[in-house]
Amino acid sequence: MKAVANDEGRYSIDVPSAQTVLNFSFVGFTTQEVTINGRETIDVQLERSAQSLDDVVVIGYGTAKKSDLTGAVARVDMQQFSKLANVSAIQSLRGVTPGLNVGATTRPGQNPDIGIRGTNSLSGADAQPLIVVDGSIYRGSLTDLNPTDIASIDILKDASSAAIYGSQASNGVMLITTKKGGIGSVKPTVNYTGSYTIQRPTSLLVPMESDEYTEFFKDVTWRFSRMGPDSLQANPNYNITQHFKSEDIVRGFNEGQNNDWWGGLTRTASNQNHSISIRGKSNDLNYFISGGYTGVKGFVINDDYKRYNYRINADAKINNWLNLGIESFFTSSDYSGASPSVNNAFLLQPFAPIYTPEGIFKLLREEALILIPIWIYKLITWKKPQTW
């Protein structure tokens, strides 16, 4: 049985028993269930609910029915990406949202470039979309936002968003909504999310070892290592060490050193995420409190990133005319890791010394280079790709 209230909110309905439960609902308000318990008159005052895209679409300056909305809007429910071990929420959107282009990153914690339907900037100085978090324009890095704190992301992709945010929306708008306490009466709920993943490249270019390097280098320097009219005879007087730039490298070659520069600069990468939150709602208080930690160890040693996240979203009803609320977060990111260049692993000979005779670390990149064009040197120091 259904009944519709008139303009003054009055209604009348026949019920089968005194224990019947009435369900009161209206678009934009919280649904309430009331048991009759033998009463003949029941007055209900509905509370405004959080804006739900199931009934309406938030368009910045108000709401509209989905059927009436003419602009291009894409909505991403972050719940479906909760099992992905991503440092940034924007990484989860790569390849799943039409019209949204997310660039690649080269180190942990880096904020990727974002494009919505291309670039619409004449100068090209600012081609990033406008970011709006819980109704406020956000100028910070998306990497600072904890992905587990985000409930949904709405993307305004066409020119109609300029009617809301002006010229700032020329490259599109991303509306980010964080989690709140809940709808209706919700008991305190504690939630923990954790993950630990390891990462390895799908293919590797590994430098040659000493024996391979020495034999192939003879072919590269064939004018010195070969003799005869057809240059196919080995030169018995050829000495490879004549091309070396220091006595340390000559000594390392004579001692048969085989330093694994590649193995010394790389490792198995790892990514761990931990997040704990408590949320709930009563008649007078709606709250969501969370804390999180993210630790990333990149494939190259010392390419590290750490992040600590804290968030408080709360709304309190003080009396009939006063409500107080707070939506805040604090992020501490550690970018102190200085990533070395893996090019050194290909530009150093395997018998180049790592330490001086006194035990001091020594990286003689210039001395270790052979006097041949650099592109040839790379060819002779690379093996064929290996697949894990």
How would you describe this protein?
It is a multi-pass membrane protein. It is found in: Cell outer membrane. Residues 66-173 form the TonB-dependent receptor plug domain. Keywords: Cell outer membrane, Membrane, Receptor, Transmembrane, Transmembrane beta strand, Transport. Belongs to the TonB-dependent receptor family. The protein is an alpha+beta fold. The protein contains eight helices and 20 strands. It has a five-stranded mixed beta sheet, with no helix packed on it. It has a five-stranded antiparallel beta sheet with strand order 12-16-17-18-19, with no helix packed on it. A hairpin with a 4-residue loop joins β3 and β4 (63-64). It starts with 20 loop residues before the first strand and ends with a strand.
In short:
The protein has 388 residues and is an alpha+beta fold. It has helices spanning 162-165, 210-220, 222-225, 247-254, 261-265, 343-347, 365-368, 374-381, and strands at 21-24, 32-35, 57-58, 63-64, 73-77, 100-102, 114-116, 130-133, 136-138, 150-156, 173-178, 186-199, 203-204, 226-227, 233-234, 269-281, 285-297, 304-317, 323-334, 386-387. The strands form seven sheets. A five-stranded mixed β-sheet has the order 5-10-11-8-9, with no helix packed on it. A five-stranded antiparallel β-sheet has the order 12-16-17-18-19, with no helix packed on it.
